């Protein structure tokens, strides 16, 4: 029998799948771009939840991998590489290799020290991106060509891009959940809850944590690749620590370590920002207290409002 978390996830994806049909009927095709933006944030948030919610590794530099993925894609496009699958391979190799190096060093620490060292690495990557004068430097780079899919422009705009991002979100959601429920995920949570006991039981927890860190970075890199396709522009600002803060807010707001929390948190942030900013210039005066109220009264996040006592991965 399907559990409630899977049912809620199924409803979310069914609604997203139906949106390209429903939005034109109600004359709201312009919301397609907003949904793509929310899905891209959700992909990155799910990847961060793997290391925070399941691994207990709070990173304040995760957005740097989005930036690295975006710039790897942009530089590839500027070099004449347009096949999206080739760009995907390049993105995974670059972000995975960088995560392997930075993760090996960062995981020598824990707690607040891990947070600070990931922040330091993130800022190093951010300033490296700003120094790429050939690719726009601080001002960013407007792309005049986008990736193709086997020579077709189907993934460049409109419904084709929407469904490509949708597929990436679904595979990320499903893949991270399968990881969390596997033996690997159980060891990762054991290392989160009691690392000393996990070590005594013979598990090389540093290795498990490093693998999770690299997987999360690669997924974030894919989010960066798709962001380039959506925005047709790349800027170092997407790698700034404030962007990492937004991801943490999405994960915590949605519900740490829950099946659908990262998606709910990401969509809530994007939709509320768009709605409030459209009716009130100083919308942050409402948005900030709203987040505080939600954190105080929905301690398990938005996921618990839909699925009480749902800490599936705990």
Automatic annotation (TrEMBL):
Entry keywords, A to Z: Cell membrane, Membrane, Transmembrane, Transmembrane helix
Pfam families: BPD_transp_2
Compartments (UniProt record): Cell membrane
The keyword Protein biosynthesis is assigned to this record: no
Record-linked CDD domains: TM_PBP1_LivM_like
Topology of this chain in the membrane: Multi-pass membrane protein
Gene Ontology, cellular component aspect: plasma membrane
Predominant localisation class: membrane
InterPro entries (UniProt xref): ABC_transp_permease, LivM-like
Molecular-function GO terms, alphabetical: branched-chain amino acid transmembrane transporter activity
TM annotation in the entry: 34-52, 59-78, 84-105, 112-135, 160-179, 210-228, 248-271, 283-302
PANTHER family xref list: ABC TRANSPORTER ATP-BINDING PROTEIN (PTHR30482:SF17), HIGH-AFFINITY BRANCHED-CHAIN AMINO ACID TRANSPORT SYSTEM PERMEASE (PTHR30482)
Protein's recorded name: Amino acid/amide ABC transporter membrane protein 2, HAAT family
């Amino acid at each position: 029998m399907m559990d409630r978390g899977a049912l809620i996830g199924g409803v979310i994806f069914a609604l997203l799948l139906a949106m390209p049909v429903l939005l034109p009927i109600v004359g709201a095709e312009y919301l397609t771009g907003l949904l793509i933006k929310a899905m891209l944030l959700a992909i990155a948030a799910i990847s961060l939840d793997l290391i925070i919610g399941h691994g207990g590794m709070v990173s304040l530099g995760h957005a740097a991998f989005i930036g690295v993925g975006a710039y790897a894609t942009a530089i590839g496009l500027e070099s004449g590489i347009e096949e999206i699958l080739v760009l995907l391979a390049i993105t995974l190799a670059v972000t995975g290799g960088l995560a392997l190096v930075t993760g090996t060093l960062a995981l020598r620490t824990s707690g607040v020290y891990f947070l600070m060292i990931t922040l330091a690495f993130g800022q190093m990557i951010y300033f490296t991106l700003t120094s790429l004068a050939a690719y726009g430097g601080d001002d960013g780079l407007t792309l005049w060509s986008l990736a193709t899919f086997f020579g077709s422009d189907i993934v460049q705009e409109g419904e084709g891009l929407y469904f490509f991002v949708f597929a990436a979100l679904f595979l990320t959601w499903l893949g991270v959940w399968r990881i969390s429920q596997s033996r690997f995920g159980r060891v990762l949570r054991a290392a989160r809850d009691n690392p000393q006991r996990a070590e005594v039981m013979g598990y090389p927890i540093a290795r498990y944590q490093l693998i999770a860190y690299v997987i999360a970075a690669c997924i974030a890199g894919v989010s960066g690749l798709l962001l380039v396709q959506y925005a047709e522009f790349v800027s170092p600002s997407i790698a700034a620590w404030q962007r990492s803060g937004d991801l943490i807010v999405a994960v915590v707001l949605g519900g740490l370590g829950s099946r659908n929390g990262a998606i709910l948190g990401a969509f809530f942030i994007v939709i509320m920002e768009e709605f409030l900013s459209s009716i009130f210039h100083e919308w942050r005066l409402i948005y900030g207290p709203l987040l505080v109220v939600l954190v105080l009264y929905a301690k398990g996040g938005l996921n618990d409002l839909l699925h009480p006592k749902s800490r599936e991965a705990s």
